[in-house]
Design brief:
five-stranded mixed sheet; single chain; 10 helices; 43% helix; alpha/beta
């Protein structure tokens, strides 16, 4: 009625709609309801959480962030308010490229992991993979090593060529950062790419007592955790940007991984906390249990 008050008499609209004029005027002067005021406050918190996530969170992670901040709001209500405000996660479909598989069967390790993605403590199973990111200078190749326990990126290597050095640098960085010198209980899982079956990579693994595991031929789900990380990286970062140089791409990816993904991004598999926080909680509980 208010929207059309300049076109039609209030008396006529009230008659057609079956409401009283006094009721209509009371409504105009009553102001927003308590629920509406609460919604407005929650919307502001939703916007803060969404901005903090760099626009990457959908309603489940936004709800988890609100809960973390002590904001009382159900997941259903969060999703409804986000739809109302047209707040959604930035997502784009990923393009997929794969590495060349080794033709030497003797160099291919068995699939020891066998899709057992639940690990009880850090530095028991690491998973690794390579992806491609486009820049105006050409392809930027990215290799990562993730700790399967926390999904934390512990090794990151980038370069202009798809060489064995790309994966050996990522592994060496992981060994350095995690302080692993000789650990007979550590497994490293990857696909059958020629970089992972190379003599250099296998020798580094052997020196550190690392058991190699490789996906079965044509079974992409065998390395699903690494694949999932690259999907996240692309939909939340690289597919949303246009890098002028490889150096620019490297800086952006490093910042995304080290500042946002490892330390801030809420991970659904971890109960909506970050990989760094997940490891911190485990370390405190481990110390208390010893």
């Amino acid at each position: 009625m208010k929207a059309h008050s300049k076109q039609f008499p209030v008396e006529k609209m009230a008659e057609v709609l079956g409401v009283s004029r006094s009721g209509y005027y009371d409504f105009l002067h009553k102001g927003p309801s308590k629920r509406a005021l609460e919604d407005q406050g929650i919307i502001e918190e939703i916007k803060k959480a969404h901005k903090k996530s760099r626009g990457t969170y959908g309603s489940p992670r936004v709800h988890a962030e609100l809960k973390k901040q002590g904001v009382s709001c159900s997941r259903k209500r969060t999703a409804k308010l986000m739809r109302k405000e047209k707040i959604q996660a930035k997502m784009r479909k990923q393009s997929k490229r794969t590495t060349l598989q080794s033709k030497k069967v003797v160099d291919i390790a068995p699939n020891h992991l066998d899709q057992q993605f639940h690990v009880e403590k850090p530095n028991k199973v690491w998973v690794s993979d390579i992806t491609y990111v486009w820049t105006a200078e050409g392809w930027l190749y990215v290799a990562v090593v993730l700790d399967l326990f926390s999904r934390k990126v512990v090794g990151l290597s980038m370069g202009a060529s798809l060489s064995t050095e790309l994966v050996t640098k990522a592994l060496k960085q992981a060994l350095y950062r995690r302080g692993v010198i000789v650990n007979k209980g550590l497994m490293h899982h990857s696909d059958r790419g020629c970089q992972y079956t190379s003599k250099e990579f296998r020798e580094i693994a052997a020196v550190h007592g690392i058991e190699l595991s490789m996906s079965a031929k044509g079974h992409c789900y065998d390395n699903a955790v690494a694949e999932s990380f690259f999907h996240t990286l692309k939909t939340e970062e690289t597919h949303l940007k246009h890098y002028r140089t490889r150096e620019e791409g490297q800086s952006a990816i490093f910042e995304y991984v080290e500042v946002f993904y490892n330390r801030q991004r809420l991970h659904s598999t971890l109960g909506y906390i970050s990989p760094a926080d997940f490891e911190e909680v485990w370390e405190k509980d481990y110390v208390l249990s010893v």
